[in-house]
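User: Predict the complex with 4'-deoxy-4'-aminopyridoxal-5'-phosphate.
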Amino acid sequence: MSVTTQPVIPPVALDSITQHIGNTPLVRLNRLPQSLGIEATVYAKLEFFNAGGSVKDRIALRMIEEAERSGRIKPGDTLIEPTSGNTGIGLALVGAVKGKLQNHYYPPREDVRRKGVRPAGPQCDHHPNPQRGRLRFPESHIGVARRLEKELPNAHILDQYCNLNNPLAHELGTAQEIWTQTKGEINAIVAGAGTGGTITGLARGLKKHNANIEVIAADPFGSILALPPTLNESRVNEPYKVEGIGYDFIPDVLDQKIVDRWYKTEDRESFQYSRRLIAEEGLLVGGSSGSAIAALVKANQEKKFSKDDVVVVILPDSIRSYLTKFADDDWLAANDLFPAAVPAETNAQAQ
Ligand code: PMP
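Assistant: Here is the predicted structure with 4'-deoxy-4'-aminopyridoxal-5'-phosphate placed in the model:
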């Protein structure tokens, strides 16, 4: 039977691309959770529909507009941001729309995304961080950004790690959208943590509507964000390949205690779930989306969701930045991540 999908987004013209940040779709997952033995209704919040392609566009917009409003920055100033990539893209995009703002950003390992934003004007520099565990080392991307802020005239680090507009973008934006889109029928939220702005803001924004909403976070093995700290101890500073989540210090904006359940996630399962989101749900996501699914699966294994539960999972970005990485079988094989092991519950056939 042929089915015609009816679009639900009203066709209106926008004044600028920054109006296409936020109000991302919430889409039901129809195969993957079912095949993993998860009975709850699971919705995915598709953050790759933001203008710059990730959840970080939201904080870029809010950090810049609040800094403008307060008079901290003016056109022509230089913005510097240490970032693994997505915040840099967001800042470059918002800066481009707003005229003369320039952006510099310093990704530790992301050449593909760096090339992607260069046409938008930022002068980009690449600072590999060979000394894991020492992100605040002077030659790390954070150390270099801090030095440049002092050296360059009218330069500012808006600093996603400390800036309250990072979690606020999610408390006032993402969380409210989810509350509205689920009509308040939500029992749990799942997201990965990098700076922690997403999970902290979501928790604050949703728990003020309903304190019983459970907040579940993913933190990769090798990172130290999870609580209790014993969760992190077995594999401290072990390198991992999933990008955008996990740190070797606790960012100021992360409220670790507001998370009800932390789960440690592996590269192998994360990439496998991302590939399954693509193959089975048609969602062209990046690797940290798979980590969020891994946390969902572990949460369900520990305490089964019921069929009446509604769970929302944040999918932060798209496959765009990873075409030569986990999307590529050869890359997975070269990194000993392919073929991915299939967790026991995934053997059931998709509906
Ligand atoms: N996934 C990806 C791909 C990201 O770039 C980020 C941002 N570092 C996150 C997840 C986590 O978001 P947050 O910084 O808000 O914790």
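The CA atoms of residues 30 and 320 lie 23 Å apart.
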